[in-house]
Every structure is written in C-alpha cells, then in structure tokens.
Amino acid sequence: MNDFGFEAVRSVDVVVIGAGQAGLSAAFHLRRTGLEPDRDFVVLDHAPEPGGAWQFRWPSLTYGKVHGMHALPGMELTGADPARPSSEVIGAYFDTYERTFGLRVHRPVDVTAVREGEGGRLRVETSEGVWATRALINATGTWDRPFWPRYPGQETFRGRQLHTSGYPGPEAFAGQRVLVVGGGASGTQHLMEIAEVAAGTTWVTRSEPVWREGPFGEAEGRAAVALVEDRVRRGLPPRSVVSVTGLPLNDAIRAARARGVLDRLPMFDRITPTGVAWDDGRAVDVDVILWATGFRAAIDHLTPLRLREPGGGIRVEGTRAVRDERVHLVGYGPSASTIGANRAGRAAVSDIRRLLAREPVAAPAG
Q1: Is residue 103 within 8 Å of 28, Cβ to Cβ?
Q2: For 34-46, how does the pLDDT look when each residue is reduced to its tens digit (9 = 90+)?
Q3: Burial, 259: exposed, middle or buried (Cβ in 10 Å; 0-12, 13-18, 19+)?
Q4: Which of 91, 131, 301, 323 could form a disulfide with 51 if both were Cys (CB 3.0 to 4.6 A apart)?
Q5: Around Cβ 99, how many Cβ atoms within 10 Å?
Q6: Do the Cβ atoms of 341 and 21 come closer than 8 Å?
Q7: C-alpha distances out from residue 183 to 89, 115, 119, 187, 262, Å
C-alpha cells in the first residue's frame, strides 16, 4: 500500500520467475532484444544467492561429477576445478553472468500467486509487492518440490528419513545401515558414496534399472526429449529427460556393480519401526531411509490461472501454455536439461516479442 492507502502495482512487459539456467537464459534473450531490466522486464528469484538449484547441492557433488552442464548463452564456463563442489563453481558462474549482463535479479523474492489482473495483464503477487505484466516466463524448476512417496507404516519408523533435497554428503551416514530408494542418477550417486562409509546399504527401486551402454549422441538425445515432450503436449505431468535415457554405464558404476553395491531389490510393501518389509516375508532393518525419488514441477503459484489439464499437467506447445498465450514455461518437461533450458529461454522470448508487438495493454492504476 502507498501513503494514500492504495495498493502500489508496478508494471512491466515481462516478469521472469526463477533465476536458474532457464530463467537467466530467458533474461539474456530479453535484454538482447532491447528490453531493459527493471524497466521492461524483471527477474524474481526466491533463492538467497545466485546459482539456482545448484547452490543447494551436497558438497560431495563436485563439478567433475556433474553430467552435461551446458554453458549459459553468451558466456562459457571455463577453467573450473573439477574437484570443487558444483554448488560453488556454478554459483560463482551464475553470479558473474548476472553482473556481466546487468540482469538485476531481485532476491530473495517469493512469488505467492499469479492471477488475472486488470486490463488484460497478469497480476504477480510476491513478497516484494505486486507486479502487472503483459507476459510471464515461469522458470521455477523442481527443486522446491521434492517428491516423498507414502507407504504404510511410514510414520512408525524410528530411524531417520530424508530426501535428496536435504542430502548432507556421505559422512553423515558413517557406521549406519542405509536404505536408498530410487533408481535415478542421484540415487546411484548417493549409494556409491554412502557405501564407502556405511555399515551396510540396501537399494530398492520401483522398476528394474535400465543401464545405457555406448555413446549418447544428438539423435538419442532428440528421441529422449520427444518422449518427454509428448507427455507435456497431452497435458500430463512431465517426466524428467533422464527418466527416459537410462543410466550411463561408466567405470565407477561398473566397479560398484562388481562389488554388489548396486544389487537392486524391488520396492518394499511397508515400512516398519526398524526398517522395511515385503509381503513375501523378507525384511531389512535400517537406521536411515534416503528417498532419492525425484521432484515435481514447482508451479503451484500458477494455480489461479487454471492452466492444468485433466491429466494433471500443463499442456505446452513449445514453451507456451495452451490455455494462456501470455504464460511460457521454460525448464519444464522437455526443456528441463541445461541445454534444453537455454533453447527454451530463446524460444519463449521470440514468442513473447510477437505478443508484445501487438497493441499495448493499458496498465492498471497504481
């Protein structure tokens, strides 16, 4: 509210929500087309520092272990120490990027809701106040929505349960019996690290892991992205690109398999006070359950716009939400990889420039 008791609403042409890979890519392309930060567009990020979700990664995930980090547009990431934590390397890179291109990211800012505003604009409600915008680029990723499956007896477990989002590194599990749930890249990385220090490890997954041998080239990448994109076009919740590519077989994986670290068990049927059990009579006692069960798209703030389809997802053509041409989702579904996020940022800006070229919408009084 201002001094006269009226709500102050700031107006821009474009609001970008999120300053990870996709959000920064979009901001770069907005600026490159002549739009000015804080005058024509604004970037809002809820994280305390530059780096997107990378800043929250566990210390043992060094830059050398990162799979396929693609540089942001206009600036390569060079000379990084592979032994340095990826959170530090990429956080510093993003910080330099934001300053070099003058993107003026607002942080920390929480976006609570996006709803229909006045004069054909969208109303973006945030901890920093209200913005009125002609177009929205949503680049919120998934890190803020860790997925915790529910199983019978879960509340009775007397040990510790945590998710990948809170993984502190392997040292925290020294001498303990650890159950890792999940067949993705994070699950296997956690398992191999923890096995070095734990009293014992058990690995369970819903389905048999798919190991990928041989090169993974451009054709294979396009085919994987197409599978994810098909779900999004049908209005289904997106799956990660990694979920359809399989797990790459490298020397570390082969060695872990040879030692029995990656011997997988099918998903248990219930959780007990001391561990987990199967209906066939098997049971395993553990001290810790680590849920490496992935994330879901962080898009609850878009709920007032009613963009979701009956299948539970937002139907997207390219990056544009089918139900509202003013809304673009980048880093969502097929653009959730680092290279995909770059391309999506460019595509969204191209589409939005055409939208902005139409007759301007009157801004609400503020």
Answers
A1: yes
A2: 999 999 999 999 9
A3: exposed
A4: 91
A5: 12
A6: yes
A7: 27, 37, 48, 6, 10
